[in-house]
């Protein structure tokens, strides 16, 4: 098997094709952070704040900041409320968000894989950070239920705007 692979790699057309395809996958987006935190027993309590730290190296660029969520089909609400705490080491900004997760007829809006539904929901779009440095985003659930059941995992995605 190894000699066959070496033969393919020695052919210029194959090598260029491979490099071209690989560049498509590496050049699409530039993520600063892409985190996922599993929620123990799928029960997200008020005290279980999800903290994500990251560093901005170029504050001249714009960034998208997303809240990532996965829940099971047994999640009993069509929406979710969260509190987001944006920290830059000097100041903190708190903001409450509501996201629709299902249509009025109950059909989930997220992409499904078996019993799990995934969402990437916007917190900040085309955001410019005030300076270079370390930042933190802390997310807490803000629903009436404590714990909020059937939430599988949550996370944060920060990526440069292309």
Query: Low-confidence stretches at least 5 residues in length (pLDDT < 50)?
Result: 13-27
Biggest sheet record: 6 strands, antiparallel
Query: What is the string of SSEs from the N terminus onward?
Result: HHEEEEEEEEEEEE
The coarse silhouette is globular
Q: Could you tell me the number of beta strands? A: 12
| Alpha-carbon distance between the two ends | 40 Å
Percentage of helical residues?
Answer: 10-25%
Query: How large a portion of the residues is in β-strands, by DSSP E?
Result: over 45%
SS summary, helix count: 2
Keywords for this structure?
single chain; 162 residues; mainly beta; 6-stranded antiparallel sheet; 4-stranded antiparallel sheet; 2 helices; 14% helix; globular
């Amino acid at each position: 098997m190894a000699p066959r692979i070496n033969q393919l790699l020695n052919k210029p057309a194959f090598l260029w094709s491979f490099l071209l395809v690989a560049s498509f996958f590496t050049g699409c987006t530039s993520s600063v952070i892409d985190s996922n935190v599993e929620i123990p027993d799928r029960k997200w309590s008020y005290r279980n704040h999800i903290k994500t730290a990251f560093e901005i190296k170029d504050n001249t660029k714009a960034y998208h900041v997303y809240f990532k969520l996965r829940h099971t089909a047994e999640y009993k609400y069509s929406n979710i409320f969260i509190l987001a705490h944006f920290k830059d080491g000097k100041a903190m900004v708190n903001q409450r968000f509501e996201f629709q997760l299902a249509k009025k007829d109950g059909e989930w809006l997220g992409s499904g894989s078996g019993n799990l539904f995934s969402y990437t929901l916007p917190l900040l779009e085309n955001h410019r950070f005030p300076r270079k440095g370390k930042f933190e985003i802390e997310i807490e659930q803000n629903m009436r239920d404590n714990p909020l059941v059937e939430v599988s995992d949550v996370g944060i995605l920060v990526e440069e705007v292309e």
